[in-house]
Design goal:
Strand order of the largest sheet: 1-3-2-4-5
Mean pLDDT: 95
Helix content: 40-55%
Low-confidence stretches: none
Oligomer: single chain
CATH architecture: 3-Layer(aba) Sandwich
Shape: globular
Strand content: 15-25%
C-alpha cells in the first residue's frame, strides 16, 4: 500500500474534477448499479500510464455528453473498493490505471492499461467521448 501523502495529489486531480472517491465495496457496487451511466476510474501511482489517464478522464468531460456519475478508486491504496470495482469489470483482468463505463449497472465500455499506456491524454479523452456519445 502506498502512503497517503504520496497519493493525495493524484486523488485530488480527479476529485477536484468532480469524481467521487469511494473506499468500500458496498459504495462501489451501489454507485455502479445506479440508474444512468457511471464512469469508474481505477487511479494509479504508475507514472508511465496514470500521468495521462487522469488528464484524459478529465478532458473527456468537456463534451456535450458525459456520464451521470463519476467515481474513482485508488489501486494499491483502497483495496476493498478496487477489488469490488474489478469484480464488476469482469471478464477484463485487473489493470491500473483503467476506466470503465457502466450503464444501469452493465459494463458497456472498458479502457485497460494497455489502451492507456503510451497514449496522449487527448486520445484517451476521445476514446471516452466516443463511448459517451454511444451510451450516455
Amino acid at each position: 500500500m502506498y502512503p497517503e501523502e504520496m497519493v493525495l495529489p493524484m486523488r485530488a486531480e480527479l476529485s477536484e474534477a468532480g469524481f467521487q472517491e469511494l473506499y468500500t465495496a458496498a459504495d462501489v457496487k451501489n454507485a455502479i448499479k445506479a440508474e444512468g451511466t457511471t464512469l469508474v476510474v481505477v487511479n494509479s501511482v504508475c507514472g508511465c500510464a496514470a500521468r495521462n489517464a487522469r488528464p484524459g478522464a478529465k478532458m473527456s468531460l468537456d463534451g456535450a455528453k458525459k456520464p451521470d456519475h463519476l467515481i474513482t478508486v485508488f489501486a494499491g491504496v483502497d483495496k476493498e473498493a478496487v477489488d469490488a470495482a474489478r469484480e464488476e469489470m469482469f471478464p477484463f483482468p485487473p489493470s491500473s490505471p483503467s476506466m470503465a463505463l457502466f450503464k444501469n449497472g452493465e459494463l458497456v465500455h472498458m479502457l485497460e492499461r494497455h489502451h492507456i499506456e503510451g497514449r496522449p491524454a487527448e486520445l484517451i479523452a476521445e476514446n471516452l467521448k466516443d463511448a459517451y456519445a454511444e451510451f450516455c
